From TrEMBL:
Lineage: Bacteria, Bacillati, Bacillota, Bacilli, Bacillales
UniProt record similarity statement: Belongs to the bacterial solute-binding protein ModA family.
Keywords: Metal-binding, Molybdenum, Signal
Pfam families tied to this protein: SBP_bac_11 (PF13531)
Binding-site residues, molybdate: 58, 86, 168, 195, 213
Entry superkingdom: Bacteria
Molecular functions per Gene Ontology: metal ion binding; molybdate ion binding; tungstate binding
Protein name according to UniProt: Molybdate ABC transporter substrate-binding protein
Length: 275
């Protein structure tokens, strides 16, 4: 009987041991790892563009003011100007000088580039006009008050632009030819390389009178207008603008022309005496 009790006790011990070893081991949670946040995608920077604007000298003041407002409304685009006589600027473009937009003071110079396919014909448009005026030094007492009186012997020097390259000089020649005065006055002519130099001749007293645009007279406190040429004396004074065919910045160049012909652009041009 004692042996049977010992056997039963041993069996119970074995059963309890088996149950204890069959308990599943407590699971340990894996340590959490911090996943780095994905970097924010960088926004592409706006393309920076520098536009070279070849513009008639008479546009100097108006475009200088327009530059600030245009660049504010078109961040990333910078305007650089090359001012001069329209004829010389057209020659530079013909010879490959870098330019994105051409703003001429005459139809003739723009026509020349269009014939050579050096401008984008589809972008060409007349954006403003002007008038031709006879001016004298503001502090002087001129002996005349009209174009018709330019043959007065008291007038020794008459400043005009070089007719071959300066549109204002070309219009001045047409005016004086219409009045039959060009030949007789040829010995008194003082020629300027652009219309602003003509203005300077009169301001400095190197010429008693000069023929410039009304827009030039508006910006100078040192000259006064004696007379305005009649429109029938010369060809219409229009300013055509166009994108240069060789530009690498076609969209920006077109945006500039659009701004120039917008209400804001027209307002600035009118402020400086353009029509």
């Amino acid at each position: 009987m004692k042996k049977q009790l010992l056997a039963i006790g041993a069996a119970l011990c074995l059963l309890l041991t088996a149950c204890s070893t069959s308990q599943p081991a407590p699971q340990q949670s894996a340590p959490q790892q911090n996943t780095p946040a994905a970097p924010e995608a960088k926004q592409p920077e706006a393309e920076k563009v520098e536009l070279m604007i070849s513009a008639a000298a008479s546009l100097t003041d108006a475009l200088t003011e327009l530059k600030a407002s245009f660049e504010t409304e078109h961040p990333g685009t910078t305007l650089t100007f090359n001012f001069g006589s329209s004829g010389k600027l057209a020659t530079q473009i013909s010879q490959g000088a870098p330019s994105d937009v051409f703003l001429s003071a005459s139809k003739k110079d723009m026509d020349g580039l269009e014939e050579k396919q050096l401008i984008d014909k589809a972008t060409r448009q007349d954006f403003t006009g002007n008038a031709l005026v006879l001016v004298a030094n503001a502090n002087g007492t001129p002996a005349i008050t009209s174009f018709e009186e330019l043959n007065n012997p008291a007038i020794k020097h008459i400043a005009v632009g070089e007719p071959e390259t300066v549109p204002a000089g070309r219009y001045a020649k047409e005016t004086l030819e219409a009045l039959k005065l060009w030949e007789s006055l040829s010995g008194r002519m003082v020629y300027g390389s652009d219309v602003r130099q003509v203005l300077t001749f009169v301001e400095s007293g190197n010429a008693e009178v000069g023929v410039v645009y009304s827009s030039d007279a508006v910006i100078s406190k040192n000259v006064k207008v004696l007379a305005t040429a009649k429109p029938e004396w010369h060809k219409p004074i229009v300013y055509p603008g166009a994108v240069v065919a060789a530009t690498q910045h076609g969209d920006a160049a077109k945006a500039f022309l659009t701004y120039l012909t917008s209400d804001k652009g027209k307002e600035i041009l009118k402020k400086y005496g353009f029509q």
